[in-house]
Design a protein that fits this description.
Blueprint lengths: L16 E7 L4 H14 L5 E3 L6 E8 L6 H15 L5 E11 L2 E7 L5 H14 L14 E7 L6 H6 L7 E5 L1 E9 L4 E10 L9
Antiparallel strand pairs: 1-3, 1-8, 2-6, 4-5, 4-7, 5-6, 8-9
Helix pairs in contact: 2-3
Pfam families: 2_5_RNA_ligase2
Keywords: Ligase
Protein name: 2'-5' RNA ligase family protein
Length: about 210
């Protein structure tokens, strides 16, 4: 395992980042699955378990709001909402364990089931935002992180602790949220700026 908490380019204490996230607020079955996995990791030093309110699936990093005018953000949100009108809510399955040197994660099946959602977001960002970060993440592996590594050490004990297969849960995606995210110690926190719904609900404004 390696330390997740190094500073990414441009990120610094207190600086916010605009990100499109799939949040788990209305998905109790998925949150329960995360808790089951976290219970098996609770005694490990060097792992930061992610509190329930901050569980998320990063869908697209946009850029720093101090470099993006509010008018561009508004245009981006409207562009995403317009594209989401033609996308029905997506149903996938979550529960595939993924191990990264910096995190323990739950992945989805089918692996590309959410690609149309991300493509719609990326298209809207490219058309409306000048100082975007689309080139930094051309590929995407959808996942929900359940713990971040905060140090260096062997991965084998972590993998063994989760060696019992988990029962996958259905994951129905109906909306994606634009948040202003900030790193707070060993945690990501955010404030929501907008929500875009998939399907006809995307006409709603929040």
């Amino acid at each position: 395992m390696t330390d997740h908490w190094w500073w990414r380019p441009g990120v610094r204490p207190g600086r916010r980042l605009l990100v499109w996230h799939i949040l788990l607020d209305d998905l109790p079955e998925v949150r329960d699955l995360v808790r089951q996995c976290q219970d098996k990791l609770a005694d490990f030093d060097g792992l930061d378990l992610i509190p329930e309110p901050w569980l998320h699936m990063t869908t697209q990093i946009v850029g720093f709001p101090d470099q993006i005018p509010d008018a561009e953000v508004d245009s981006m949100v409207e562009g995403v909402r317009q594209r989401f009108v033609d996308l029905a809510p997506v149903e996938v399955e979550i529960g595939k364990l993924w191990f990264h040197s910096e995190a323990v994660m739950l992945g989805i099946r089918p692996a590309k089931g959410l690609d149309p959602v991300r493509t719609a977001i990326r298209t809207a960002v490219a058309e409306t935002v000048r100082a975007h970060q689309l080139a930094d993440e051309p590929a995407w592996t959808p996942h929900v992180s359940i713990a971040y590594s905060s140090g260096d050490g062997p991965a084998a004990p972590v993998i063994q602790a989760l060696d019992v297969p988990v029962v996958p849960r259905p994951l129905r995606i109906t909306a994606v949220d634009l948040v202003e995210q900030v790193r707070d110690g060993h945690l990501y926190r955010w404030d929501r700026r907008a929500r875009a719904y998939l399907g006809q609900q995307s006409r709603a404004r929040e």
